[in-house]
Amino acid sequence: EVQLMESGGGLVQPGGSLRLSCAASGFTFSSYEMNWVRQAPGNGLEWVSYISESGSNIYYAASVKGRFTISRDNAKNSLYLQMNSLRAEDTAVYYCAREKLSCHGDCSDYWGQGTLVTVSS
Amino acid sequence: QSALTQPPSASGSPGQSVTISCTGTSSDIGGYNHVSWYQQHPGKAPKLMIFEVSKRPSGVPDRFSGSKSGNTASLTVSGLQAEDEADYYCSSYAAGNNFYVFGGGTKVTVL
After folding, report:
1. Which residue, of A13, B73, B79, B94, is most buried by count of CB atoms within 10 Å of its CB?
2. Which residues have a Cβ under 8 Å from the Cβ of A2 and sit 6 or more positions away?
3. Interface mutation target, options A3, A108, A113, chain B, most CBs of B under 10 Å
4. Given phi > 0 = left and psi -120 to 50 = alpha, else beta, which region is A90?
5. One digit per residue, pLDDT tens: chain B, 111 residues?
6. Is B22 in contact with B78 (CB distance < 8 Å)?
7. Are A44 and B51 an interchain contact pair (Cβ–Cβ within 8 Å)?
């Protein structure tokens, strides 16, 4: 069974840092592209970042570029999101999502349950 | 403001059809057949319903269909059922600053 489990969320002050993790199981993690997607309370989905299977290709939303860093450890079946210089507007539930094989576009067929990040003083 | 534009709400009676539009530009929807649709129930993670404009993942009922014309993609839900009441989001690959972009979401109500 495919499972994605995020962790690392919590309350952080503006300007602070947080590192999210996503533990993957039930599939060959190293064969899949991965995304981070967030959802502010009561709002819609916002794509945050993408990483290719090997980590050689990485993309960010303009809203987080220069502040967030996506990475993966295929040996540990884990995806990460390092978030620095956090702002109130980064408050959201953060989901990790797996992209469907051989799919063009944002084809996230499995999602974690999400982890809440709250940026507030 | 979302990069893709969706109507905030849509509704239909059980058994009827509802169509949701998603409007972008030639840099995203219009330029690529890389449109996806997600369904999200309250408090749950999104679920992929359509990918590559009109393809359905295994397990998604054929009541859900997708299409595209120019810069606008559409999701049609036929034979509405109570469990179809949810938020629906479109997504597209986008050349330029953002790799992927979402629509603002459409709340579908089954009357």
Report:
1. B73
2. A25, A26, A27, A98, A110
3. A108
4. alpha
5. 668 999 999 999 999 999 999 999 999 999 999 999 999 999 999 999 999 999 999 999 999 999 999 999 999 999 999 999 999 999 999 987 778 999 999 999 999
6. no
7. no
